[in-house]
């Protein structure tokens, strides 16, 4: 919950949101608002809450949806791929000369580039399932050996114990702070669940996510400054583009720009090969888009029709809605059947 650092998006803090997020003010997870607690989903070991496991289960709470989803065109997506809308925490991490515990250190971590990335990029995990991820650039100065780029996306745990990938861009020189090792950090994200994303936010020529941040470290710069970047992922790879500061950077005495903002020199280097496109046959997409609009329309009409009916009907309607939202195939027929039964 506390010390939300680099792994911000993968902590309980994102479940609670509000003051536990960086920057503060993130919307809480839908479940949090319903008083559902960590161990309603997370398995626990022998010591209970203090022994919380990473593995989570949805218990019996969404059986109909899980079933509908498992038969749909989107069965290969984690629930989180559609239901997480923004990511907070560090947006850039630079290691360079600075003060650590009051002493000069060549590897001070300049990571207080706090901001928001939205919407999440989605990509396949080790087993081919689409997951939501946070993607952000890292660089480490004062590095000696040469390091070659990774051949493609790398997974820390090949068997899927955790799903975080990464990509090593390689070493670069700018004539200061020795070599700089650049890599792209990619983190699987799991909270907070919110409203489902729109079709268009995923099904476009390329996936696009925007990061906006504010630098808040009291070392390096005299004053906080703002900036941002774009992440583009498609069939020709993933790249971070348009990295820039929006407000001036005033370098503090005794520091160089490349100590805490080396990304200015490498702004077009965080690129990786691979196919990150969401392949869809256009005709098929338009057919389902149309179908899903019709489902929405039918559901809205039905909602008005049952407004004054008893609790049982309301409950059945909620189930119908949940199921038809998660599997377009056969949805219209289910709605027609429901209407018939009403009469
Ligand atoms: C609605 C269900 C749900 C609730 C409630 C929930 N989580 Fe999670 N959480 C998940 C899922 C699903 C994952 C992804 C699990 C995986 O990767 O196998 C996850 C992942 C995590 C991770 C990342 C672990 C890792 O190594 O990737 C942490 C840490 C975590 N949750 C902490 C918490 C804490 C603390 C709370 C309560 C404040 C909480 N969660 C509440 C569903 C939930
Ligand atoms: C203890 C019951 C419970 C558990 C466990 C639980 N949920 Fe939920 N979930 C709810 C309730 C209640 C809602 C509120 C919406 C509703 O009434 O269906 C909800 C809503 C959601 C939403 C919709 C969010 C929105 O704002 O539209 C998603 C997505 C979701 N849950 C996914 C999950 C996933 C994935 C898991 C397992 C990792 C899980 N839930 C575990 C009870 C639960
Ligand atoms: C392809 C995208 C997509 C995937 C994958 C997905 N959902 Fe949804 N979900 C939506 C949309 C769109 C809505 C309707 C908008 C909203 O209320 O969030 C929705 C709504 C919900 C709701 C609220 C239902 C209601 O009646 O208001 C719950 C609960 C939910 N989803 C749970 C899940 C669970 C659990 C999974 C995984 C088994 C899942 N979703 C996977 C897109 C998705
Ligand atoms: C979170 C991103 C996301 C959202 C939101 C989303 N999709 Fe998808 N969709 C995917 C991915 C990824 C696949 C590929 C699944 C696979 O590899 O099995 C896919 C597959 C499909 C396919 C099948 C493609 C084929 O040629 O077989 C269709 C059709 C489709 N989506 C339509 C839609 C429609 C319509 C909506 C809105 C109701 C929607 N999608 C919402 C990510 C998304």
Key attributes of the depicted protein:
343 residues; alpha+beta; 3 domains; 7-stranded mixed sheet; 5-stranded antiparallel sheet; 10 helices; 30% strand; elongated; binds heme C
Give a topology summary.
Elements: H1 13-16, H2 30-33, H3 38-41, E1 42-45, E2 48-56, H4 63-70, H5 79-83, E3 93-100, E4 103-110, E5 113-118, E6 121-124, E7 130-143, E8 154-155, E9 165-173, E10 179-188, H6 199-202, E11 207-215, E12 225-234, E13 237-245, H7 257-260, E14 271-272, H8 282-305, H9 311-326, H10 331-342
Parallel strand pairs: 3-7
Antiparallel strand pairs: 1-2, 3-4, 5-11, 6-7, 7-10, 8-9, 9-10, 11-12, 12-13, 13-14
The chain binds heme C (4 copies).
One heme C binds next to helix 4, helix 5 and helix 9.
Indicate the low-confidence ranges by residue numbers: none
| Computed Rg | 23 Å
> What separation lies between the terminal Cα atoms?
51 Å
Bound molecules: heme C
Helix and strand content put the structural class at alpha+beta
Strand segment count? 14
Task: Describe what you observe in this structure.
It is a single chain. With 343 residues, the protein is α+β, with helices and mostly antiparallel strands. It has three domains: 68 residues, no CATH class; 180 residues, no CATH class; 61 residues, no CATH class. It is 25% helix and 30% strand. The chain has ten helices and 14 strands. Strands 3, 4, 6, 7, 8, 9 and 10 form a seven-stranded mixed beta sheet that branches. Strands 5-11-12-13-14 form a five-stranded antiparallel beta sheet, with no helix packed on it. A hairpin with a 2-residue loop joins strand 1 and strand 2. The longest helix is centred in the last third of the chain and has 24 residues. The mean pLDDT is 95. The structure holds heme C (4 copies). One heme C (HEC) binds next to helix 1, helix 3 and strand 2.
